[in-house]
Write a structure and sequence with these properties.
The protein is of the alpha+beta class. The protein has 3 domains: about 50 residues, CAT RNA-binding domain (Transcription Regulation, Sacy, Chain A, Roll); about 100 residues, PTS-regulatory domain, PRD (Orthogonal Bundle), CATH 1.10.1790.10; about 100 residues, PTS-regulatory domain, PRD, CATH 1.10.1790.10. Helix content is about 55%, strand content about 10%.
Amino acid sequence: MKITRVINNNTVATVANKKEIILMGSGIGFQKKPGDTVEVKKIEKVYQIRDRFFQKYEQIFRHIEPGVFKLVEQIQEYAEKELACTLSPQFVFALADHISFAVERQKKQEPLPNLMLQEIKLLYNREYQIGRYGKQLVEKEMGISLPEDEAGYFALHIVNTRMGEPSVDVNNILVLTNGILQILEAEMGIHCREDDFEYSRFLTHLKFLARRIFNQEQVQFGIMEGLYPGLLAREPKLEEIIEKIKNFISETFDYDISEEEAAYLAMHILRIRGQ
């Protein structure tokens, strides 16, 4: 194999099976130039990248140390084992880029607050726990302390790159969830509790509601018909709160929830209240 581009001392590009690939290894690009033969014994990692992403990822390789990629690979291996899933190749580049800038920001004492951290912990707790593992790994290997916010950001990278999962916009799910929780807190004094089973069920329902909203689907469950008036009668403020939630969803996502969906929301809210 011939080197087509030298990205840095530890990274080069070459062509295999008519596709450009990136090779990483300690010193693989040192004192090399295009046309030189690749030293196969120095290859530690091979990355095949889609053409349209090649220039973007080439820039990532230029400014990130190989050690960061090794850390990300450990996090990926742990995540795939814990979640029994496969993460897309994009995960390595996206998280390596994020870690590099997170460390740089921390050294400059310029942290980036994660405004959705609480929602991430509630909606994607397993991914968040893996994010905590990743954060601790980075801290140990790079000798730096990172804020808890970073565990949340790591979790989002995992959620966004899980292969074989239905396509979702995680940011929109967080916006939806946060908006509904704010209404419940303001109107009924309901606060999130990570250890509350009913609260956990409610959040799971919101995730499925979000998928229906973003796919513009109206699902009729067929088992809540006629129950909505009775549910509303159990809590004087419930109808007003459901209307606020419906207006929030309509104005933010241009989606009108059905009466049956509203009944499910009412049922979950009553359960959280212990009614």
